[in-house]
Amino acid sequence: xxxxxxxxxxxxxxxxxxxxxxxxxxxxxxxxxxxxxxxxxxxxxxxxxxxxxxxxxxxxxxxxxxxxxxxxxxxxxxxxxxxxxxxxxxxxxxxxxxxxxxxxxxxxxxxxxxxxxxxxxxxxxxxxxxxxxxxxxxxxxxxxxxxxxxxxxxxxxxxxxxxxxxxxxxxxxxxxxxxxxxxxxxxxxxxxxxxxxxxxxxxx
Length: 204
Known about the structure:
Elements: H1 2-5, H2 16-36, E1 53-73, E2 79-93, E3 95-103, E4 106-114, E5 120-139, E6 142-146, E7 163-183, E8 186-188, E9 193-198
Antiparallel strand pairs: 1-2, 1-3, 1-7, 2-5, 3-4, 4-9, 5-7, 5-8, 6-7
Protein name: Cholesterol esterase
InterPro entries: DUF6230
Organism: Thermobifida fusca TM51
């Protein structure tokens, strides 16, 4: 990545301004992830960016699961429907997260990988899901429960009368997901690798 990102200026020095455009978003993301490991449950609702991002994992294991319809709103007041998914305790193996960045020097991809040997762990994880694919197994599932009466998670509740589902556990293999936002009480990324690559290099 260094060869593609760092270029020599006419005076022989490194073009640090161009490098900063690419590196700073990654450093900011790393700071956010680090803060998430020490803070309590984050707000489930916040103004999202105008772009979605992708998450994949070879295996997700969750205890305490719930899902209901919600709305994700961007800073520009654009709103979109999402499935708000809540997992009380989650483990993800071979996790990849990618987000496309439009930078002054062109398009780039922020890539975060973790959990290759030891799974990524999260508590009180809340995900605004636009699309999810995989092979799933639920235990003690309740489909059609009122979203205001969920009792298998300690996260947010939906509106009275709204459709929801919940289960004691959820297992998803070969997970791929398009999301608008993720918040978590704690997030521990074992074997974290963060890269910003010029061009498009999404997880899937």
